[in-house]
Amino acid sequence: MTTAAFDFAPLLPAGLPAPAAKWSGLSKYSFVGGNNDPDQVPVDGLIDAVDAVLRREGRTLATYGLASGPQGYRPLREFLTQKLRRDAGIACVPDDILIVSGSLQALDLVNQTLLCRGDTVIVEQDTYQGALSRLTRLGVNTVGIPLDHGGMRIDALAAALADLRRRGVAPKYIYTIPTVQNPTGTIMPEARRIELLDLAEQYGVPIFEDDCYADLIWDGRRPPALYAMCGNGGVIHIGSFSKSIAPALRVGYIVAPWPLLSQALALKTDAGSGALEQMVLAEYCAPHFAEHVPKLTRGLRAKLDTLMEALNEQFGTAAEFEDTKGGIFLWVKLPDHVDTLKLYQAALATGVAINPGPEWSTDKKHAGSRLRLCFASPSHQQIREGIAVLAEVCRREFGVPARIANVETQAWKPI
Ligand SMILES: Cc1ncc(COP(=O)(O)O)c(C=O)c1O
Prior knowledge:
alpha/beta
């Protein structure tokens, strides 16, 4: 018997993504990812829910899909129909909903349903890295539409659609995060939603609406979902419990017309998403969701205030950002010469993890001096300390901020 390790390399098919790096733990100051506030996970409520639902219905775990069929636990879909009607104006029935393993699986299923290598899709210029990386892996071309305070700019979208048509390209969908955009935090007003729907209808392009953060709005007020406003069934709507309850539960959903939903269901090959998570969410959310969310958003808003104060104190005018209406991210612009991919490396070495802008944009130059900071998971103290360390690293590497916490630094004193 030889002890040489078996070599899998010659067996790997072409076109695989780069292998994953081994996890080396969370950074001391972690501003990355879409993680939640650990103190806001409703642990006691989830414990009560799991106990109640397992005692009552635990025997249904003996059946794939419980007793609810392949679209997911029916009481959870019933809760969603009520929640979506109340919050987003969506009139749907449980059979319009497919429960999936996080909205990442929704992205995969919709992409598998609609896209081929060489296709073109329209996205917001700054957008969710998980959506961009999937499209790149599929060999799909992305056209990025610039954003302003109201989200995707309709004039730029109209120009892009006209240009694509001139070139004989029919985009497969328009992907948008209209309600608390990731990473910019904008909410598209209702009037602009109407313009977007009109334009999409005019060009015969469906809209792929990602409403992942729609529960996390400081004043709780949001425009109706595009899905609710669309008159022709040309919107696919996805959502998630990751941001309102907990991302590790891995429960999301697709709401779509049956011809699309049935195709996505046929591609869902995991014999159903985790049943226990679905049961616990339905049991907890039906009585508690409406009171849990305002508590959660109050806590998030307080953390955003701490982050903005820390940035103002440590970076002064070198860090530009807009107060957001909700969510868990702040999209920050540093002076043009700051390369946030390099800042990311240098900061990581000191225990501060940030998301560099270029990974969240179709326009790498525009995003080169931008970064995304998640304020939900670090504590207030970690936010203050982490931003102070980040400012120090940025000053060392790029000379900004020239002043730290309003104290002029040695290196930048005029001689
Ligand atoms: C815009 C957007 N969509 C989808 C997801 C995926 O979330 P999940 O799979 O946890 O539902 C995220 C996660 O951060 C996101 O930001």
